[in-house]
Amino acid sequence: MNTLHSNPCATLRPIVAISSDRIERHGHPAHAALHGYVRATSEIAQALPLVLPALADGLDVDTLAASIDGIVLTGSPSNVSPQRYGSPSPHREMLLDIHRDAAILPLLPALVAAGVPLLAVCRGFQEVNVAWGGTLEPAVHEQSGRLDHREGDHDRPIERWYDDSHDIHLVEGGLLARLAGATRTQVNSLHHQGIERLGAGLRIEATAPDGLVEAFSIADAPQFTLAVQWHPEMRVDDSPFARAIFEAFGDACRARQQQRRRAFA
Fold it and tell me: Which GO molecular-function terms appear in the entry (predicted)?
């Protein structure tokens, strides 16, 4: 018996949009998302991942909010343009993606207001902070009293880049502390930029030993909203904490899916 035709809703997965980078492929403009985010969304969150294009002229937020059950904001080699948060022009060596900035930043407040669950990683973490009026420090390692949060030796195999690099303190009673079942754990945080000023309405979930904000949620959002500076998508095979993040996100997306079905009916 064909289950899909006998009960169309029984086997449908929640739909999760995944942000992409604007890149060049063989001389052609292209849109790309790393496989780790796609795999973790599909296998651990148990959702259908769909990659969002990084369109410089923007995306239709009303159509998107009515169509998706969650959004994942990915990490990237590129940085949010400093002009987006009122800082001086970037150093010429800073890799930017102005197409992604234009596509993603305007979407976020409207999607969160519409109740869409959000999981933001690394660059995505920084995008949410900027979208809520925060600012970024472009070179954390150059600041007095800060750890060097960069990825280290590039000659190592890429998998080793994502080994745990330092402890974080999880705020007692917060979302992450509940998922971890503890107030301290280790993460694979690797980044050049970091939060300088936290955006208004963002609630700290975790900090590094040097005090740098490593995770936050959106205080007035009733749905799952979590932004982390580290890379749980790269550790879902060997880290229960990383798996728990994507599992909780998937649960929130299924709840959103049920709400959309009821509204449609």
Answer: hydrolase activity
Catalytic, 142? Answer: no
Catalytic, 233? Answer yes
Pick the closest to residue 151 from 138, 142, 164 (CA basis).
164
Q: Please give the torsion angle defined by the CA atoms of residues 256, 258, 261 and 265, in that order, rounded to the nearest 10 degrees.
A: -130
185 with 176: CB under 8 angstroms? no
In angstroms, the CA 258 to CA 26 distance is 42
Query: pTM of the entire structure?
Result: 0.92
**Catalytic residue check, 122:** yes
Q: Can you tell me whether residue 167 is helix, strand or coil?
A: strand
Phi-psi region of 165 (alpha: psi -120 to 50; beta: other; left: phi over 0): alpha
Element (H, E) at 166: strand 166-170
